[in-house]
Structures are given as C-alpha cells and as structure tokens.
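Worked Example 4.2. Read the sequence first, then its structure tokens.
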Amino acid sequence: MTYNFDQIIDRSSSNSVKYDIRQAYFGNKNVIPLWVADMDFATPECIRKAILKRANHEIYGYSIKPDSYFTSIQNWLKTQHNWSIPKTSIDFSPGVVPGLVFSILALTNPGDKIIVQTPVYFPFFISIEGNNREMLVNPLKEKNGYYEMDFEDLKSKIDSRTKMILLSSPHNPVGRVWKKEELEELIEICVKNDIIIASDEIHADLVFKPHKHIPLASLSEKAKQQTITFMAPSKTFNMAGLSSSFVIIENEEYHKKYRALVESYHLTNGNLFGTVGTEAAYSHGAKWLSQMLSYTEKNIDFVSDYFAKHIPQIFFYKPEGTYLLWINFKALKMTDAQLKEFLVHRAEIGLNQGIVFGENGTGYMRMNVACPRSLLEKALNQLKAAIDRLDLQLS
C-alpha cells in the first residue's frame, strides 16, 4: 500500500494545540504552524481502525493491558532496535515528560542536582526546577552546526549532589543520533559517579539512514542497571493525544520505586484507546513508518535546497533523526524577540524559539517539517518574501 503524505487535512477547530491556539500563542491566527512536534499526516489507518473497532463496544470502562500489548512492544523493540527486554520491565507512563517527573520524584531528593545538555527539549527544565531540584547545565559543543557531548565539562561539574541526567536520544532539537562510543563514554561517567540516566527516547524510530538509534540500556549490563528508558509510539505514528507512553526499567530497585510513586498518584491505568493504538501501531505500522520517513527526509532536503538557492544566509545541519530542523537565523542580526516578531508578523510562520531550549539556543528556531510539502513550500516562500522586503528596507 502506498500512503498519501501530500494530503492536506484541515485540523482547525479540532482542539489542536498546533492550530487552535495560534492567536493566543503567536498573536496571529494566520501563521503557518510548524512548531508543535506532531505531524500533519493522517495517523496510520491500522491505528484508526483498531480504535474504531474498540469504540464500537458499548462500554468504555476500566481496562487492563493485555499480554498482546506487551508482546507488541517487545517485538517492535527487537525488530527495530535489536533490543530484547522482559515483559516485567515495561511499565506505563501517561507521557514521557510525566514519566521523567515520576523518575525525578521517585529516585532523587529535593536539592539534588540533575544534568541537562542544552540546547534541549525545554520541558526538561520545569521537570527539574519545578520539583525543587537543581538544574546542572552541561552544554553541547557545536561546530558548524554539528553538536557533540562535552564530556570534559560534564566531568568537571559533577559533585556529590549530582544524582541524575536527563538524556535526549535522539536529540531534540539538534537532531543528533548518538553514536555507540558517545553513549558508552556517558555510561562510564554515570556509573563511576552513581548518576541515574533517564533517557528520553521518544524519537527512537525517527532516524534516517545510515544512522541507527541505539537504546542506551541495550549496550551493556552496566547500562541496563543505570538507565530508565522512556518511549512511546506517539511521535512515530502521530498519536500524541492518546497518552500512550511507556517506561522500561530493568533495575529492580529503580522499578520498584518508580512503580510505587506512580501508584501513589493512581496513574497506572492509562488510556483505553492508547493501549489499543499502541498495539496496532507496533503490530502493523512498519510499512507506514518506512514511507513516512522517506517522505519526511525529502522534505528536509527540500528545505535545505531551498535555503541554499534562495536564502543562503539561513542554514541548518541536516538532522540524523527527528523531523525537526534546528535553523540558524543569526545572519539576520536580530534579537530573539525581534526574530520571533519578524517570523510571526512578517513571514507569518510559527516556529519554536531557540532560546527556550537553553541560552545557547539564541539566534536559532526549531521547525517541524512533518507536513505536506505544499504547506512547507508555502511557508518557505513567505519567509523568502519577508526577508527580501527586509533587505530592500535595509539597502
């Protein structure tokens, strides 16, 4: 079956965060929204059919997760990532960020330090500081748009109060897919200093060849015992509204504490349709994913070629994973506030401000390209026209 990713789907008035709060968030209801990290592609038919089938039952009562749910996760991880895990290591989380918060509350204490590697997904910050922990910033090293972990800086900042690191893998927003050697060095540092690794791997399936996502916990027994892994089908299959995340914890002590915390908040049941959707996605979604990745990579190349031809002062390093572009706008010589104003009200496109991902995100914007190419082309044409007008004003 060939899927149509060029289809324009009207998402307005569907209670979509991406579309229906444009006026409130940007102050301009007409911006082309390329910000929130969900796709403008139809959720795979196998998921929609499974949900509709279950929805036809007359009762939506309390539900359990069947063995087939766990088996679908195990099979997917083995097939896609060569990672074999026991059923007992899988637990529920209403979302990756709530799961990170649960791990912080369960496994660290107020006043403990937790590491982030900026620029990074900004909910990490409130997850730490909003729960009376101290954020320890270990900025990534950047050279010509390519980012690497700064292990020397990390080692120099760790002290006895440093208890956890929140890892983004693949990395949001810079698009790195961490290499085996990088992950192994991180593991060695964390094992030596007894630092728990809470690994956000929600973009694990969104990786472009020849790159390959490596689940951190799959690398060794040490890694398995030091790591809590958070995953979900939500980014992969465009089902973020279904509360379908899960956590993999093979360290029995960590798992016991995590589970006790989640149970104390009575959050273990999850969403009936999230369970159904997850099983359908992981059982039948592989072909859709392959075609979606091909289409999205062509979108990335389209933006890259467009910038090179029409707006060469703006550029990005092609992401190894995710459908997010980390775009350098510094040549426009604007402050972050001016850049946002320019993009929203002159170009009428809605992007995520780089500065919210950390201080080293200044001058950058994050663009979501998981959308029909015609929408992307329209946005780029509006951006070019706005910059052309700006150049005329300055000349």
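Now turn to a second chain, presented in exactly the same format:
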Amino acid sequence: MTTIHCLGSGLVGSFVIKKLSNEGIKVNVVDINEKKDFISNDLVEVHIEDAFKYCQKTIENDDLYVNMLPGSLGHKVTELLVSQGKRIVDLSFSEQTPESLNPSAIKSGAKLLWDVGIAPGFSNMLIAYASRVGNGIVSVEVRVGGNPILMDDEWSYMAPFSPNDVIAEYTRPARIIRERKLCILPALSERHKIVVGKRGAMEAFLTDGLRSLLDTIDAEDMTEYTVRWPGHIQRFIDERDAGILNEEDLIEKWRFDSKRREFTWMEVKVECNNGEKMCWTIYDEGMKGDSSMARTTGLVTASCISQWLIDETLVNKGVHPPESLSNEVISNVLQSLRDEGVDIKGPDIHL
C-alpha cells in the first residue's frame, strides 16, 4: 500500500490528513509540534519531528509526499525531495516557486505537482480549461479571499494559514499581464469595491497570485485580486506608512479562531478568443467543524492525490503546475468539491 507522507498539519494539512485517511489511505503525519485531533484513525501515524530530517531518511520509492509546510521551509523540503526522485504534491505556496527544479526532477526521476489549492490551484485549472475550449484567452480576472462572516472593530480578518505568508502577500510586488506584457505593480494597488454574493460590499486589491499562469497561459490581460472587508487593507497601509506596523502583533491579532464563522469566496472570469465568456463562482462557509479555507483548499489537494494514486501517469517526470492537468482530472476535482457541499456556479467541465 502506498503511504502518503503529509508534511505539516496546520488548518489545511489537518483536513487533508483526515480526508485521505477516511478514504482508506495510509498517512504518515510529520510535524514539529504535537497534534492530537486526528490521531484516532488507525491509518494515521504521527511523527513529531523536523520535516527536513524526516525526508532525509530512506522511504519506499512508491510513496507520495504532500508538502504543506510554510514558506521558505516548504521550498527547502521540496528541493530535497526532488533531488531524491520522489513523488510530491507541493502545497507550501512558497514565494520561491519550484519551476527551477525541473532539470533536477528530470535527472532524478522526481514527479512534482505544485500549487494545487483553491487559488492558486483550482483557479488555474478552470483558466486552463477555458483556454482549451475557447481557442485561447483574451483576459482573466481572479478575485479570491477567506474572511470572517462578520466584520469587527479590529482587522475583520483571521489568517487560515501562516500569518507570515499573508504579510508576505501584502508586501510582495504583484506580477500581472497587461497587453501581453509582464507588468510589476506594487502590492495592494488597484483597490476597488466589489459585491460578494451573500456578504455584500467588500474590497479587492492586487496580489502576486498568478504564479505559474504567467508562463503557461497566453493572454492579453491577466490579474488576481485578494478580497477583504472594507477598511482592512487601508489600516494595513496606514500603519505601514506610519512605521508602526508590528508583524508580531499582526500574527497574534490575525490568529485563526475556529469558533468564529468564516467563508471563502472566489470568482474566476475568463474571456476567450472565440468570443465565449466564462465565469465561475465558488462559495463555502465550512462544515462539520472544518473551515471553509481548509475545505476548499484541501479538497482540491486530496482529489489530486486520490486521482494520482489511481492513475500513475497523472504526473510525468518533472515539475508541473495545476493547469497541466487534464480536463478529466479538473472535472473530477470540481465534482469532489460539489460532493462535499461547496457551492460552485458556472460552466461544467466537458471532457
């Protein structure tokens, strides 16, 4: 039996571990901190140790690694696994993306699928599908965010993953495509008001979320915006410009509260070369104690893993982004989200 080695067991990681083990898949959990909320399953074995040291050990060649570690640590571990010729699903969302590891992966025989979350991830898949059926793409707009259902008197936000990585999103320049050219704009620019389904008026602003799409999708214009409650990003800008922004304070104030209701919303709008316009909206408020961001991200990840276990040819040697996946895989991912109660409106994926 193939074992899945899940590196990291945060909010999303814990959900992926539970989902895979419930499907009868053996999971080794590796985390430097002890976690107890998923140990009841007999298929889950917990290793309380450093993930990098764990991955230096000799493990069965047919096993699969799911890297859900934060930031730069995640990239360091991915680099090690690639050098060892492993099968890897990389969900670390590190600023340093793994395309440069492709020559090493080809040499070692490693197979790496990266950024298979909600955005990047599912958004990429939908855009790739639109490009295939629409004879290429004119424009892409992605808007996405996970936020509390109700505003508060503070930041009206809590981070569903590492707050340090959220701060990095707010400070890293945004790479977008304008008139078929790569443009680099300041993070948080192009702020504008939008209406988000059940939640009403919110704000969207540029962040550096296109990642692999910048190289794989040929479009005249392509942008990704992060969505927050009004006032959130203005406060960040004001405190940053005043020199009083305290990252340690933000980490504490943005700490995720599992008792607080929250939602994840995404809109993917694509105009195709054949004149067709496609729009998908994804909405979730969490379910059965699982947060919306854990569900929408983790279900995409788990679906890709399950499909890879069934079809060994799903990912070839080398480094592959989510938009490289077939229409059949994308359709299965979409259906897995719907089957778990995630609300998805938009075109079906035709094979």
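Notes for the reader: Residues 285 and 291 are 7 Å apart (CA to CA). The longest strand covers residues 137-148.
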